[in-house]
Amino acid sequence: MNDLTLIRKNLFRKKLRAILLTLSILIAFLIFGVLGAFHTVWTSGSEVAADNRLVTVNKINFTVSMPYAYWGRVQAVEGVEAAGHASWFGGYYQDPTQQVQTFAISPEAYLATYPELVFPEGQREAFIENRTCLAVGTDLASFFGWEAGDRIPLLSNIWQKTDGTSSWEFDICAIFDGREENMPANYAMFHYDYYNEALAFNQDQIGWIVTTTTDPSLNDQVAREIDAMFANSPAETETSTEAAFNEAFVNQFGNIALILLFVVGSAFTTILIIVGFTMVTAINERTGEIAVMKTLGFPAPRIFRMVLSESVLLSVIGGLLGLGLATLMINAIATVAAAFLPGLAMPLDVFVAGVIIAVILGLVTGLVPAINAQRVRIVTALGKQ
Amino acid sequence: MFKQIGAVTMMNLRSIPQRAGLSIATIISIALVTGVLLGFLAMSNGFRATLQGTGSESVAVMLRGGSQAELNSGLSSDDVRLIEDAAPGIARDAGGRPLVSGELYVIVDGIKRSSQTEANLPLRGVGERALDVREGFRIVEGRMFEPGTNELVVGAAVLREFQGFDLGETIRLGTNEWVVVGIFSTGGSVFESEIWADLAVIQNLYNRGTGVQSIRARLTSPGALEDLQAWEEDEPRLNLDIENETEFFADQAGGTAVLIEYIGWPLAIIMAIGALAGAWNTMYSSVDTRMREIATLRAIGFSGFAASVGTMVESLVLAAIGGLVGAVAVYLLFNGVSASTLGSGFTQVVFSFAVTGGSIVAGMVMAVVIGFFGGLVPAIRSAYVPLLTVHRSE
């Protein structure tokens, strides 16, 4: 009989207790895993951001437009590799509750700033050439069941055409996707010209400009130059990196990270206390046995190691089960909610962090009982009976 | 019978200190679960209370058909005039002029104190009629803006959550400097999350000509809304969505408040399962350490039922203490704490966490349910302790 067998037998000597402890540990790691995955997808905007991509918006607020002519001037700034512009369409399909994220863009220039968008053979060219084309992200296309070749109307809850309606007809001629799993493809894009020529108001205005620099080290310089160009004009601009812009937007919803920290912290505090006290009780019950082991010649460090291994084993079993269950849950949610939460998956770093926390939890909860066990004095312990 | 139950229960409760460690573990774990639930409910209730406390049943809000939010809407000055001149059911002042307020709703950046990042704040362009279609508006500091000038008044909630809007500060919008000349309160409603300035000046700044985005009108009575809606239906020159203001804001409360609850409840329930396992474990140990004691009681004639009631009551008491600790802690830490989030108007809504009586009841019920199921199996077990355990040496 080696130590591992002893540890295993000890852990499951009271089956119900072991199961209950495993269950409460499992729950904490389930919460950690699921919330960790959501947090990652929530903040992915700043992670998938290219390090040389800048966003220029109206200084008053990003919902305020700027003149079309700005686009041409930004393109001429030194250090700019490519610059495209986009405008928020406020689109919906059939019913106002079925919102569709849609942007009116400068097709070729805008796509040049997003090299990570991949199109099937020939569709990128088809989109650039065809004025009425709507390029649809795969997640969005599968949500509405759209395919290349479909002709659909999209309505805008903001813009009106000169004919008084708010409906634009589009031919879906391209379905695009992100090059990597976590890049969102839940939106659609179309030609700015096709939209602008029909506008009843706000013609020749654009929403924002996306720029890539020839080198990330030029970001600050290019941003400063762009903003200086439009200083003291009726539409001053504010240029920031894509990552900073996305982060600010996510922060608008509130301090989500702090809330998650509270919840995960509560869950871990709970198991730390439950498992900690239970382990102390469990080892106390075994005082006599440990004394016998010592009498048989088990050295104190070996007993210390065995008790510690027992609590680490318990918490790693619970942790792995919890993280495994979290992965299954996240995969299930991801298939249902692809259109709203694109790129939802169990991130490897969350899983690894979970395993590390499980080991630490095991060490912390096992430390006091292990010290107690190591200190058991044969005379007093056996004298107890 | 009742004497037995009473005696056993008291024995259980008095012996809790002997099992202090595990009992405290149970109390804390249940307190944390209750705390998480109440925290989410306080957020949801606070947000809902702010939006539902906004608006009046006798004010009609008119937006362009299908626009869904003030931000998206756009109406012409002709629309305003037509409503002022011809719409039925609209109240008039002593001079016979209709109480109709055309308003602009645009967004400016504010720096959120908590994250130091830019966030969307609503800048509302209002005319002289704005106060006739709102209740409870008062200037708490400074004065109202002068029409035709670059002056602003700022809602009290904006001041709380965003920096740079103190009285006397200047703000740059476009090429103009604006001065904050007053702080206003509307009694905790969502208008306090707004900045107000003169309509004509904002129209000019945002190149809106004479257009507005929303029209508010005071109705002669809440029932007059239907007359107004019927009139609009038959008026070919208008395409409006008309709602009373209470409904308008209640609709906006829905999404976010429900979302917060949909996150809070499942989280709390999953955590509750973990706490239940903990409580079960504690009660199991409690019965375990008292095996001989219970067997002795049974031997001298106490019923198994009394023994199990004692165990169950112990579990319920621990759970109730936990629930109470959680509720008190959340109340002390979070009640009234100010926060802001992006509302459905695409602008920040400032609200205060509200720990309500109803949510405390919900939290206590959950705590007691955890205690009940945690104590159930151990309680049954204590009814069936074999009498021979008396002789078993520990």
Walk me through what this model shows.
The complex is a heterodimer of chains A (385) and B (394). Chain A is built from 15 helices and 14 strands. Chain A is an alpha+beta fold and 385 residues long. Chain A has 2 domains: 3-45 and 255-383, no CATH class; 60-235, no CATH class. In chain A, strands 1, 3, 4, 5, 6, 7, 8, 9, 10, 11, 13 and 14 form a 12-stranded mixed beta sheet that branches. In chain A, strands 2-12 form a two-stranded antiparallel ribbon. The longest helix of chain A has 37 residues, at 300-336. The two termini of chain A are 27 Å apart. The mean pLDDT of chain A is 92. In chain B, strands 1, 2, 3, 4, 5, 6, 7, 8, 9, 10 and 11 form an 11-stranded mixed beta sheet that branches. Chain B has a two-stranded antiparallel sheet with strand order 12-13. In chain B, strand 2 and strand 3 (118-126) form a beta hairpin. Chain B is of the alpha+beta class. Chain B has 2 domains: 2-52 and 252-391, no CATH class; 66-238, no CATH class. The model of chain B has no long low-confidence stretch (mean pLDDT 91). Chain B is elongated.
